[in-house]
Design goal:
The structure is a homodimer of 323-residue chains. By secondary structure, the first copy, chain A, is α+β, with helices and mostly antiparallel strands. The first copy, chain A, contains ten helices and eleven strands. The N and C termini of chain A lie far apart (46 Å).
Chain lengths: 323, 323
């Protein structure tokens, strides 16, 4: 057996239970499930763009799957399968062992079976396609928000962006804050349980990968509405609260990699939303509301606690200026 | 809208008909089809490993999808959907336009809908996940070959490998031979119709991406048998027939990127197999047969037309020595 296939088999060939056929043939085979739609998403992580060269491979294995699970969470889908294609510069065995350990630890927690993959030589690149199931018609899409809905987010925002600043030595943090923020950056916890619990309650949902301002704009645009965000209501961790005001805002509103959920729900569902958050162990915070978008106006309006308008802020953009 | 999302939308956002939801949300949504299994495969193409930096982007768009369609063909699955993740070093608009044109021209021919994707900055890397449908239990797997089966291949082998030698100026070819072989390398035609027509006839199948010797070994191993290949029977194009014997053998048996199908069928199905080839406009050639594998012996035995054993030959291996 050639070394390429050895590598694949050794690190990523696990038996499957749910899939009809897993890794090892030209294709995997998945059985249809009556009444369930298949939710599918793909994400590519590139060294230097999405993570630093010296990132711990176990954490990277976790994150590679986590960002994809987050997309399923944002649709209210149950994770089922994944494929993993990876390019590595050389046949680095210890690295692959740790990467696989992080990947499968998270996969096992969510019942995800790795059913296919590709391993090749090249600059480090990790591409996962994820498959989930959601009852027909019950997926939570981006386009369901209506004027008057509340806008909610889970957890705290901006920690990962602050973690990146810390790694680049562009922000100096205490030891606890630094460890917390780098953990948030490198080991995001996809909000799968929350996504499932919000079926039938959230009118629209997106996961926060590019920053609240930009991602809320995606929701608003898809729904044909606008979002008013009270920046003073955005939930901040102990780590971010200790930072200067400008950095706080920038990290929480335009920082990437939060992987929290942002969703809308009718205003009469507030008690239910809070209860759902409690049931999955996550704080949910109302950060604004949706309103009718006037022609030619921006999809997101930032205001402070006194209702004063603030300048617009862009989401993270791989081809634009650095955040 | 940020430039990253502009790029995605402009080049890869096409309306879908079959899918419930296409590009533009956190996930695509695919409706279940009663009685059909979903066949899934993923392939990653990397600049410098799978294609040269100056490859025509239209051809590259074609090939990126073609190698994935070839995996569906090898299972006897009908192509349905694809996702495309790509890393590009910069927001190269003309390149993306041509790449998308090549990708969608082939996608449209096979009724494939692009339902999801990711665009990011990084060394050029193209990752497609492909989805097809095959009636439950009818997929043609690698593990069904039995001793006594014939071993068949479609088309001619080794042309792409010779094309790569020509591009590297390591082989000198006439103009017609050169154009033909580079075309075979850069614009492979996935044998989707053949794969479908072989359902119920082929006992096992694989697509030839790493060379006949290596890929036949995969079939043999998965099936618990061995393959005897008559190298004098391997079908060669006019271009390869003009090459020295050693290069002919090397390209046809250990060259990558053929994307022909290699399959087994019972010996009493010969007339039917030939008729199937004719019905889809492809020549099919019997290149050997399967036999019981003795413990400790190789999965592939190469012999010449007089039955004399030849030295073993490895398939293409991204981490091994160059072919």
């Amino acid at each position: 057996m050639s070394s390429e296939f050895d590598l694949i088999a050794r690190h990523f060939h696990r038996p499957v239970k749910r899939a009809v056929l897993g890794v090892g043939d030209d294709c995997a085979l998945l059985a249809p499930v009556q009444g369930q739609e298949m939710a599918v998403s793909t994400d590519m992580l590139v060294e230097g763009t999405h993570f630093l060269a010296d990132t711990d491979p176990r954490r990277l294995g976790h994150k590679t799957l986590a960002v994809n699970l987050s997309d399923l969470a944002a649709m209210g889908a149950v994770p089922r399968y994944a494929t993993l294609a990876l390019a590595v510069p050389d046949a680095r065995d210890a690295w692959l062992t740790h990467f696989a350990a992080g990947f499968f630890a998270l996969a096992n927690r969510h019942g995800v079976e790795l059913v296919g993959g590709d391993t090749t030589r090249g600059p480090l690149n990790l591409c996962v396609t994820i498959f989930g199931e959601v009852p027909c018609g019950q997926a939570i899409r981006r386009d369901g928000a209506v004027s008057g809905d509340d806008l909610w987010v889970s957890g705290t925002l901006g920690d990962a962006a602050l973690g990146l600043l810390a790694l680049r030595e562009e922000a100096s943090l205490g030891a606890a804050e630094r460890a917390f923020c780098i953990g948030r950056l490198e080991s995001p916890e996809p909000r799968v349980d929350l996504g499932l619990a919000l079926r039938g309650v959230a009118t629209s949902m997106i996961d926060l990968s590019d920053g609240l301002a930009g991602d809320a704009a995606h929701l608003a645009r898809a729904s044909g509405t606008a979002a008013r965000i009270n920046v003073d209501a955005v939930p901040l961790s102990f780590a971010l609260r200790g930072q200067p005001q400008a950095r706080r805002l920038r990290c929480a509103l335009a920082g990437g990699d939060d992987y929290e959920l942002c969703f809308t729900a009718a205003a009469d569902q507030r008690d239910l939303v809070v209860a759902i958050g409690r049931s999955v162990g996550l704080s949910l915070t109302r950060v604004g509301s949706m309103f009718e978008r006037a022609a030619g106006s921006a999809p997101v309006l930032l205001v402070d606690g006194d209702g004063r308008a603030l300048p617009a802020m862009r989401g993270y953009d791989h081809f634009g200026a650095p955040p």
